[in-house]
Amino acid sequence: MGKEVERKFLVAGAAWRDLVEAEIRIRQFYLAATPGRTVRVRISNGSSAELTLKFGASERERDEFEYSIPLAEAEELTAFALGRVIEKTRHHVRHRGYLYEVDVFGGMLAGLVVAELETPEDVPDEMLPDWLGREVTGQSRFYNASLALGGIPEIAA
């Protein structure tokens, strides 16, 4: 189990694109989603899959458990997905020693770009990069489970 301090931001500019270290094509979906707990399956680059359980209602800190699962089983589980299957490309970008995951969404969520910062400690605002826009931490409509189950949020940074 790992605790994570997670912050989410809309992305305000394209300066991050020159800093990309890696890209991962992701398809993910939810098998269960209630306030304070989710069960998610993520398929990465069409070659590996993980089952993730998250617990906690805090805006910034939750307990997370991740397990590798066979790709064939993950594909089979898509039949049980709640809502839509999310498609996105995740870009790894480093700034001041911290890894940001910039998700560029596709499909019905095209146009949405969200940056996540997951750390063991809280990062002060003055350490954040300039290309981050409005912070949306705690705004459930920007969480992946809500994106899978609900409508499309406004995306103005």
Main beta sheet = 8 strands, antiparallel, barrel
Overall structural class, as computed from helix and strand content, comes to: mainly beta
What is the radius of gyration computed over CA atoms, rounded to a whole number of angstroms?
15 Å
Query: Spans with pLDDT under 50 lasting ≥5 residues?
Result: none
Approximate strand percentage: over 45%
Please list the strands of the largest sheet in the order they lie side by side: 1-5-4-3-2-6-7-8
Number of strands: 9
Query: Can you give the helix content as a percent range?
Result: under 10%
How many angstroms does the end-to-end distance come to?
33 Å
Indicate the mean pLDDT. 90
Helix count, DSSP H or I runs of 4 or more residues: 2
- The 3D shape can be described as globular
Query: SSE order in H/E notation?
Result: EEEEEHEEEEH
Question: Topology, please?
Answer:
Layout: E1 2-11, E2 20-34, E3 37-44, E4 48-55, E5 61-69, H1 71-77, E6 82-95, E7 98-105, E8 113-119, E9 132-135, H2 144-149
Antiparallel strand pairs: 1-5, 1-8, 1-9, 2-3, 2-6, 3-4, 4-5, 6-7, 7-8
What does this entry show, briefly?
This protein is mostly beta strands and 157 residues long. The chain has helices spanning 71-77, 144-149; strands spanning 2-11, 20-34, 37-44, 48-55, 61-69, 82-95, 98-105, 113-119, 132-135. A hairpin with a 2-residue loop joins strand 6 (82-95) and strand 7.
Structural commentary:
By secondary structure, the chain is mostly beta strands. The longest helix has 7 residues, at 71-77. The model has no long low-confidence stretch (mean pLDDT 90). It contains two helices and nine strands. 25% of the residues are buried.
